[in-house]
């Protein structure tokens, strides 16, 4: 098993085709100037020791060195074995509202972006807990199954947007039922927590019925309200620029407001409601709630002994750089005798 520690540096590999293009252009320019200087055969006779292939070899060496330096920055890691470890934690599902109303910017930068930030900060606090992610609007959509791999969870979190669920609206009951389905029957002893993040605008029915079903299954609920009760319009953007605002069938601008009572009703007699406008307040609230939930021991398979391999790539890169220093443009005598590259003396 292997993993890449810093994948963002892979973009540096795009410099390789750019360098090749620069090299080809420079080669074309040199030959053009040689033709202007005089006959190519005469120029070749005036520089008998100049190698035809050495500059290509030097380019290959430089590109290999660059590739190795990039891989050293990426830092590949290799896991040498797997082991089953026992952990104490709880199972947590994040249900995140991705309806169009979450594009409202009554809280900076937007309700949806604030929701992603909150979940990311909460994940940073977890150690042994398993997490899953559900997206919902007019219906619910499973984004990430239960996992203890927090880096993967953050990757899926960043990809969430208002286009991932086709049916619009806000169906809180679907979100609760989908979240409840994440908890397997064989995990009845595991403590279960749903953290539902929304502006509370419920366009469906049956939320309370879904809450009762969840409670019978032993699932506790925290609701986090994102937005303001004053509300605001829903921007329609193109390439990040606001072009207009959403309007209803009567051409009136749609205003969306935070519905606190709806969210409070869902988490009533459970773990309660907290405003998501203050990140620190949310982190403290959830931490206290987790401290009051019994932890359950469960088994988790993980790869261990992940060893960094950057030093190998760094060493190869340095060796190639040294090789490039000693590669001269003149012909190598023993290669010249072999005439491997059909270089005429």
Give the secondary structure arrangement, pairings included.
Blueprint: E1 2-4, H1 15-37, H2 40-46, H3 54-74, E2 76-89, E3 91-97, H4 111-125, E4 130-136, E5 140-147, H5 150-158, H6 172-180, E6 192-198, H7 207-216, E7 219-225, E8 232-233, E9 235-238, E10 241-245, E11 255-256, H8 260-267, E12 273-275, H9 279-291, E13 296-308, H10 310-326, H11 333-338
Parallel strand pairs: 3-4, 3-6, 6-7, 7-12
Antiparallel strand pairs: 1-2, 2-13, 4-5, 8-11, 9-10
What does this structure look like?
- There is one protein chain.
- With 345 residues, the chain is of the alpha/beta class.
- It folds into 2 domains: 2-82 and 307-337, no CATH class; 87-298, Rossmann fold, CATH 3.40.50.
- It has helices spanning 15-37, 40-46, 54-74, 111-125, 150-158, 172-180, 207-216, 260-267, 279-291, 310-326, 333-338; strands spanning 2-4, 76-89, 91-97, 130-136, 140-147, 192-198, 219-225, 232-233, 235-238, 241-245, 255-256, 273-275, 296-308.
- The longest helix is centred in the N-terminal third of the chain and has 23 residues, at 15-37.
Properties at a glance:
single chain; 345 residues; alpha/beta; 2 domains; three-stranded antiparallel β-sheet; 11 helices; 13 strands
